[in-house]
Design a protein that fits this description.
Blueprint: E1 6-17, E2 23-32, E3 37-43, H1 44-57, H2 86-105, H3 109-112, H4 115-121, H5 125-128, H6 132-184
Antiparallel strand pairs: 1-2, 2-3
């Protein structure tokens, strides 16, 4: 066993890369047992490779002999798609891959602390120096999300204001109607 292990792994976003070719990577925040936290970047194909290694190394836990004994989490499957759908697929996989990572590090130590899992979550040189365009894209994405959130908040505020005005207007109308009714009642 290793001297330190992965305590938590959260997939926080997906990011487009252009080198060596266009592809998407998942941004993963890894928390280690020595209290360090690192950000790593992995393509879907690396998750798939890890899954295959784990299923080969742990056939019982992978449910190959008895599906009821499976404890290794399922990974979202490979999808055939056209180029225009790559981002959609990457984004759709975000939550299931996050759930996969979280479940993986919570498995019994003989799996969660095995060499394959350690090497997968271990920081690599390309994790320490991500491409500049990737960092800029991430900042743009964050800003875009913040602006979208702000616009949504403003629209909600505007809707509340309009609703309040409509209620006020209806109240005035009802008051006028009651006044008219009182005036039209015969005095008696």
């Amino acid at each position: 066993m290793l001297s330190y292990t992965v305590l938590d792994a959260n997939v926080v976003d997906v990011e487009k890369r252009r080198n060596p070719s266009k592809h998407y990577v998942y941004i993963i925040k890894v928390t280690w047992s020595d209290a360090t936290c690192q950000t790593i970047y992995r393509r879907y194909s690396k998750f798939f490779d890890l899954q295959m290694q784990l299923l080969d190394k742990f056939p019982v836990e992978g449910g190959q002999k008895d599906p009821k004994q499976r404890i290794i989490p399922f990974l979202p499957g490979k999808i055939l798609f056209r180029r225009s759908h790559i981002r959609d697929v990457a984004v759709k996989r975000l939550k299931p891959i996050d759930e996969y990572c979280r479940a993986l590090v919570k498995l019994p130590p003989h799996i969660s602390q095995c060499d394959e899992v350690f090497r997968f979550f271990e920081s690599r040189p390309e994790d320490l120096n991500p491409p500049k365009d990737a960092v800029n894209k991430r900042i743009q994405t964050i800003r875009k999300k913040e602006r979208k959130k702000e616009r949504k908040k403003e629209r909600k505020k505007e809707r509340r204001k309009k609703e309040k005005e409509r209620k006020k207007e209806r109240k005035k109308e009802r008051k006028k109607e009651r006044k008219k009714e009182k005036e039209s009642e015969p005095v008696g």
